[in-house]
Amino acid sequence: MTSTKSIIGIMAVLTVLSSCSEMTECAMETMPAPPAVKKASTKLFCCGWGQMPSFPGGQKALFDYLTENIRYPDDCEDTCVQGRVIVSFVVERDGRITEPKVVKSVYQSLDEEALRVVSSMPKWAPGKLNGEAVRTKYMIPITFRVE
User: Fold this and answer.
1) Are 64 and 11 in contact (CB under 8 A)?
2) pLDDT tens digit string along 89-111?
3) Which of 144, 141, 4 is nearest to 80 (CA)?
4) Least crowded by CB within 10 Å, which of 13, 21, 86, 128?
């Protein structure tokens, strides 16, 4: 669904956290493990220890994916609602995107669209620690702007 107004920028900027102190929820969290599994793989890593996860094709491909797939909600375009929605999610060991959630909300329709697009992303290359794939928390700010 394409709008009649010109959407000058649906900008997505990939932000990699440089330290856990920048986000209170970003501290290493222990996820509940199934009773039979007691491995380090139940931990969620969020900081730059090792290799961070990456979108297939890199940051430019992620920007292109978001630009092509985000649809500006009609109710927001009509009323010129704009702003930056920050979405956090987990890149699983197999590259799937799970646990998407809005960290900074702007407006319900924009939040829902940001979650929809993040949830539909293809598998990423997972983060690695000591050569082993690990679950990694990631954040993306998505800026919606109408002119």
Assistant:
1) no
2) 999 999 999 999 999 999 999 99
3) 144
4) 21
Reference 26, options 90, 119, 96; nearest CA is: 90
Cα distance from N-terminal residue to C-terminal residue, the chain: 18
Amino acid at 10: I
DSSP 72-106: --HHHHHTT--EEEEEEEEE-TTS-EEEEEEEE-S
Structure token pair of residue 136: 């990694």
> Under a CB-based contact definition with an 8 Å cutoff, are residues 89 and 76 in contact?
no
Q: Which pTM does this prediction carry?
A: 0.70
Give 72 or 45, the one with higher predicted confidence.
Answer: 72
Token pair 């969620």: residue: 44
- Pairing relationship of beta strands 132-145 and 43-45 according to DSSP bridges: parallel
